[in-house]
Amino acid sequence: MSNGGSAIRGSRVGAGPMGEADRGFQAERVERNYYCSNGHATNRAFAANVDAVEIPEQLDCPNCGLPAGQDKDNPPIIAKHEPYKTHLAYVKERRTDDEAKELLEEAVSAVRERRIRLAEAAASD
Questions:
Q1: 68 near 34, Cβ under 8 Å?
Q2: For residue range 76-117, what is the model confidence (pLDDT) as tens digits?
Q3: Which residues span the membrane (predicted)?
């Protein structure tokens, strides 16, 4: 007789014995702490067989995004904080006013020509 319930509640197919302590081989690790100028501390683990040269000196802080270094007393600081620039600001850096006017005139004339062609095509139908 079935009662409609699951005999193995809270388990999934293929799961090992309940409460198994050893879940496989765990590689040796080296832990490094990183500190940002806002006082956040981040702990990262790296494989023990990695050369010390390959472990980064700085990371981005996951809390605030500032650079974080391994020296707690002297965290890295940003030399110059640039505000967010829009796409238009970058375009204005690359183009002079005369070039911008010329490009605008080309774009407007192309739109006018397209509208004229579409109007003529609609009138002929």
A1: yes
A2: 888 776 778 899 888 888 989 899 899 999 999 999 999 999
A3: none
Q: What is the reported pTM?
A: 0.48
Question: 16: alpha, beta or left, given left = phi > 0 and alpha = psi -120 to 50?
Answer: beta
Sign of CA dihedral 16, 22, 26, 29: positive
Is 22 within a domain? no
Residue 103 φ/ψ, nearest 5 degrees? -65, -40
Q: Tell me the residue range of the domain where 39 lies.
A: 29-69
Distance of CA 40 to the CA centre of its chain: 19
CA distance 30 to 85: 39
| Counted domains in the chain | 2
Higher pLDDT, 71 or 125: 71
- Reference 38, options 2, 12, 65; nearest CA is 65
Name the residue type at position 75.
P
CATH number for the domain including 51? Answer: 2.20.28
